[in-house]
Write a structure and sequence with these properties.
- The radius of gyration is 17 Å and the shape is globular.
- The chain has a six-stranded antiparallel beta barrel with strand order 1-2-3-6-5-4.
- It has one domain: Roll (Pnp Oxidase, Chain A).
- Helix content is 27%, strand content 42%.
- It has 152 residues and is α+β, with helices and mostly antiparallel strands.
Length: 152
């Protein structure tokens, strides 16, 4: 696929998969994301994925668009994990994420917090970790069957 086709798949997708490793095991997990300005923006709670990416920022990201078993597109990105720590970076990332994802059902890490439900949670548990994957390399593959699922 061309770079423009790869970017189209990334731009139109909402859920991708991050692959990361601590050197002993590989961990792959689905994430909600936004592609913007040659980077993948996402959010998470503190956990295994974040712990692994902090230790080894080299990651792989995959997203696909599937119409059928014989009509699909897939893009794989290699990149570097960057946790967004400054207020300016976090505000920019939240704006990018909310602008794209607000029309869809959002996960708990992106919803406004309810004081009644969240009184028992610490600030660390409530606050999402925002991060960006800087794209180093991108490739895409596709299959398009002219029969569109119809047998000859």
């Amino acid at each position: 696929m061309t770079p423009e086709q790869n970017e189209h798949v990334l731009r139109t997708g909402l859920i991708g998969r991050i692959g990361c490793t601590d050197g002993k095991r590989v961990y792959i997990v689905p994430v909600t994301y936004v592609f913007d300005d040659n980077a993948i923006y996402a959010h998470s709670r503190d956990g295994l994925k974040i712990e692994i990416m902090r230790k080894n920022p080299n990651v792989c990201f995959e997203v696909e668009s599937i119409e059928s078993m014989t009509n699909w597109r897939s893009v794989i990105v290699t990149g570097m994990y960057h946790e967004l720590k400054t207020e300016n970076e976090q505000t920019q990332a939240l704006t990018i994420l909310k602008d794209r994802l607000m029309p869809y059902l959002l996960s708990e890490t992106m919803r406004p917090q309810s004081p009644d439900l969240d009184n028992k949670k610490t600030d660390k548990e409530r606050k999402p970790i925002l991060y960006r994957i800087e794209i180093i390399e991108m490739s895409g593959r596709f299959e398009k069957n002219a029969f569109h699922g119809k047998l000859p």
